[in-house]
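Need tokens for this chain, all 193 residues.
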Amino acid sequence: MYNYIYGTIAEITPSYVVVDNHGIGYLIEISLNTYTQIKDLKEVKLLIHYVVREDAHLLFGFYEESERSLFRQLINVSGVGVATARVMLSTLNTAELTQAIVSENVKMVQSIKGIGAKTAQRIVLELHDKLAKTDNINLNTIVQNNKNTEEALSALVMLGFVKAQASKVLDKIATDNPTMTVEELIKQALKVL
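Here are the structure tokens for all 193 residues:
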């Protein structure tokens, strides 16, 4: 019914935005990633996913088509509703979540609040092939990237760095530069840590 809504931001929080379009204020549910991208804007164009339930009509807004597309694929997985999909897209950005699913990183998917082991496995199983095809992701690069990141993390932990902190830094570096070697990852991480 709605493809997008363009208008002035009347109110914004990390979970929703009210977009004024010709005197009508549309309350649109958003992810934390969309919030980060639009929080400083005066006017916005949000891509919409419209949900009709017995007790409510809801609008979910996305700044980028890739996020809306992933949201739609997530809610087609049995056991994943719109609220869970929004939490997933608030926890990880579209690229990180796609990479986790395509590389079959069930632990990363399961680390999202509200996602249990069975749901994480179901998400990976059902969306792995779809995301690999639609996003043209090079699986070999992702698998190699994960191995390099794991080796670099192991080395940093042996050097005395806190695993959680080092992992976060390495994930960001690897996302920005997916072809880095283990040595390059360690050198970049040491500059940040």
